[in-house]
Amino acid sequence: MSRLAGIVCLLLLSVPGATQPRIVHVRLFWQHPPATIHVVPDRAFVRTCGTCAQKSLSSAVDLTAQGSNVVSAGASSSTLLLNGRARITGEDFPPFAIDSELRIESHDGLLLLTLSMTLEQYVAAVLQGESAGFRSDEALRAMAVAARTYAVHFGSRHGVEGFDFCDTTHCQDVRLGNESPRARAAVAATEGELLWFEGRPAATYYHRSCGGEIEDARSLDPDLHAPYLRRRHDDYCVRNPDEWQSEIIKPDLTRALNRQVNALTVATRSNSGRVQTLLVNDRPISATDFRFAVGRTLGWDKIRSDLYQLEDLGNRISFRGRGQGHGVGLCQSGADLMGEQAHTYREILAFYYPGTALGLNAQGLSWEKLPGESLDLVTTRREDATVLLSPAEHALRLATQQTGWSLSVRPQVKVYPTIAIYRDATGEPGWVAASTLGNVIRLQPISTLQRTHALDSTLRHEFLHLLIESQTRPGTPLWLREGLAIYLSNPDSVRPAQVDVAALERRLHSLRSEEEMRAAYRDSAAAVAEAVEKNGLSTVLSWLHTSSPNTMK
Question: Ramachandran region of residue 17, left (φ > 0), alpha (ψ -120 to 50) or beta?
């Protein structure tokens, strides 16, 4: 089925196959940036700015940070954009390959590397960092869904710094360069799938091992509305609870906490048994702050989780605990065992995130179908019918009268309650007002379209698309289909122009930005207007189902 959409004011349309993969920008070596990298090109290009001309990189080169400049072979620039295929090596990290854009900047003598990659590539790299030891392929698929949903839910965690995610467990642990075939297969098998709750991507927290007791989400975020992240017993992880023990001398604790430690006791615990608050010499400290302080100074193996007992042995403190990590959401140890016991990834996800729904599009919304005279309205808000049914019926009548065609299938108009849910459900960017899939017109919230005075024109454009697609045979060029919808929406506003339609068709199949889309659709409408001026509208309309694309001059 084709995917189409309408131009409205500053909102653009999309074409079949034009929705681009979601791109994320990942800061590599976030905690330990290198000072020099070695680039071995394999058909790679470099630019010094987004609009600058690119130059071919024909041989290997060293890039070094000097102050705020990136230096190579005596030349320097504040920014380098490396595109294409290349291999990156360095002294302190394993080599990895890129096939997309790597932005290279310098700060205080260190290179800041930001890699643009598709969401699916990112998930594969996360699996390599977070789940490389998994034995079960089904558990690995569950982790792929969890990692993908986590990224979409939390979005750009480092947006103010100019990138989306870092490559550490602060976001998700990314390991580039050696993604296993199993990780890639798990990503491919679940491509695009997310976990949804009430129409939004869920907060899919996960951890290494819960020690048999899953923690409530409120331990991480008291304001998080996530009933699917509740405290419960984990019968799978309890069979392999990851028990650990350690001892820390009090001088080391004094150094880690930056305060004298004479005595340490547990003050409060959560319902799962995890330590919430400790008393250091009768002064309170949260268990999370305590664990992080010890981890940063003495090593993360000393206090692996907050599920422990402690004993004061005079000059040292003994810890005996279970699990690893915060204990919220999916337990990787338990999930792996579930997979080994023949549970599917869907069953694993349902166990650890109960109440969520798995799907490519928004799930968990309460949709209602409200019938009109010649179409149905699908919405989560009954009051939408008062605003939408009459103009939708009017737009359908106008489109039918203008083309002389009718629909054999009853159309639906589906209204999404928020722009975010529309974007997540359809895969369209936020500047696309509507999209059409099969016999369903999918709209952004009515209030958004009313605010831009775009409701009537959007509906008319989309119904024209429905009618055009109902008459289109396979192989009909995109420029004709898209140009007709725009032209028929408002013929007087389109100026005829001679356009190389073969080149235009190639452009429409490789759109990469909003600007390219605007230009290609403008040219499509101009080409249709030119064809109508020379041949008449009825002839041009007949091209959809009677003429070979080669004769559409």
Answer: left
Q: How confident is the model at residue 15 (pLDDT cuts 50, 70, 90)?
A: very low
Domains of the chain (ranges, CATH numbers): 3-19+365-471 (3.30.2010.30), 36-108 (no CATH), 121-237+328-359 (no CATH), 243-322 (no CATH), 478-551 (no CATH)
Q: Per DSSP, which regions of 224-294 are E strands?
A: 232-233, 243-249, 264-269, 275-280, 283-286
Decide if 332 contacts 209 (C-beta within 8 A).
yes
The answer to whether the CB of 370 falls within 8 A of the CB of 390 is no
pTM for the full predicted model: 0.70
Three-state secondary structure string covering 318-381: EEEEECEECCECEEHHHHHHHHHCCCCHHHHHHHHCCCCEEECCCCCCCCEEEECCCCEEEECC
pLDDT tens digit sequence for 305-343: 999 999 999 999 999 999 999 999 999 999 999 999 999
Mean pLDDT of the chain: 88
pLDDT greater than 90 at residue 490: no
Buried b (16+ CB within 10 A) or exposed e, 78-101: ebbbbbbebbbebeeeeebebeeb
pLDDT tens-digit map of 247-268: 999 999 999 999 999 999 999 9
Phi, psi of 16 (to 5 degrees): -55, 125
Q: Give pLDDT tens digits for 201-231.
A: 999 999 999 999 999 998 888 888 899 999 9
Residues 6 or more apart from 76 whose CB is under 8 A from it? 66, 69, 70
> 152: how many CB neighbours lie within 10 A of its CB?
18
DSSP secondary structure letters along 105-144: EEETTEEEEEEEEEHHHHHHHHHHHHSTT---HHHHHHHH
> What tokens appear for 47 in the block?
């630019």
What's the one-letter identity of residue 526? Answer: A
Q: Rounded to an integer, what distance in angstroms lies between the CA atom of residue 69 and that of residue 74?
A: 11
- Tokens at 282, concatenated: 């009768």
Whole-number pLDDT of residue 512: 67
Please provide the distance, in angstroms rounded to a whole number, between the alpha carbons at the two ends of the chain: 26
Tokens 């023990």 belong to 245
SS3 label, residue 103: strand
What proportion of the chain, given as a percentage, has pLDDT over 90? 58
